[in-house]
Amino acid sequence: MKIHLLGEETIIEIEVIGRSHPKCTDYWDGNWIISNIRIEVPGYRAQFKADLRTDELRNFGNELKLMDKKLKGKASLINLDGYLEIECEINKQGTIHWTSETCYPAGIGAVLKFDFSSDQSYLKGIVQEIESILSIFPVFGKP
Questions:
Q1: 141 part of a folded domain
Q2: Among residues 4, 23, 121, 135, which is most buried (max CB within 10 A)?
Q3: Does any domain span residue 108?
Q4: pLDDT confidence tier of residue 8, bands split at 50, 70 and 90
Q5: 97 assigned to some structural domain
Q6: What CA–CA distance (Å, rounded) separates 136 from 143?
Q7: Residue 81, Cβ density class (10 Å: 0-12 exposed, 13-18 middle, ≥19 buried)
Q8: What span, in angstroms and rounded, lies between the C-alpha atoms of 38 and 51?
Q9: pTM of the model
């Protein structure tokens, strides 16, 4: 189960492996997921494991879906632990400007910041990938 953010010479791939705490079904512990993050940008390649949250993916997917519908706005995926931050904004021509920052190990490790652009035609595919992941790993409970 993967999410692909693609741009000119840029790939961010988030592969969800499973729940971090598979026996927990509460909001705070049950929504952590183990993920492999792979990034390729000109001059750099990075790959690392990260704990993300299903509610972070859900919120990002909802914002992207709204952006695709209105062809305006912003969306962001901000990881609670600080492994990954992705923000995007669409312009009137349908170009999406993405900014990203990764940190590994989270909070104390090496930081990679980069930006790239893509076409709005990728939005539906990204939303479908997120929805597929959430159908297997739904968000538990409420905060």
A1: no
A2: 4
A3: yes
A4: confident
A5: yes
A6: 20
A7: middle
A8: 14
A9: 0.95
Q: For residue 38, with 0-12 CB atoms within 10 Å meaning exposed, 13-18 middle and 19 or more buried, which class applies?
A: middle
Query: What does the DSSP 8-state code read for residue 106?
Result: T
In sequence order, the 6+-apart residues with CB closer than 8 A to the CB of 101 are 84, 85, 111, 112, 113
Share of the chain above pLDDT 70, in %: 100
- Domain containing 81 — which CATH number? 2.30.31.10
Tell me the pLDDT band of 57, cut-offs 50, 70 and 90: very high
Q: Would you say the C-alpha torsion 60, 65, 68, 69 has a positive or negative sign?
A: negative
Q: What is the mean pLDDT of residues 68-95?
A: 96
pLDDT at 29: 96
Number of domains within the chain: 1
Q: Which residues contact 74 (CB under 8 A, 6 or more apart)?
A: 63, 67, 87, 88, 89, 90
Alpha-carbon Rg of the chain, whole angstroms?
Answer: 15
Q: Give the residue carrying structure tokens 């971090």.
A: 20
Enumerate residues 6+ apart whose C-beta is below 8 A from 11. Answer: 4, 5, 38, 39, 40
68 located within any domain:
yes
Is the pLDDT at 143 greater than 90? The verdict is no
Domain extent, residue 21, equals: 2-136
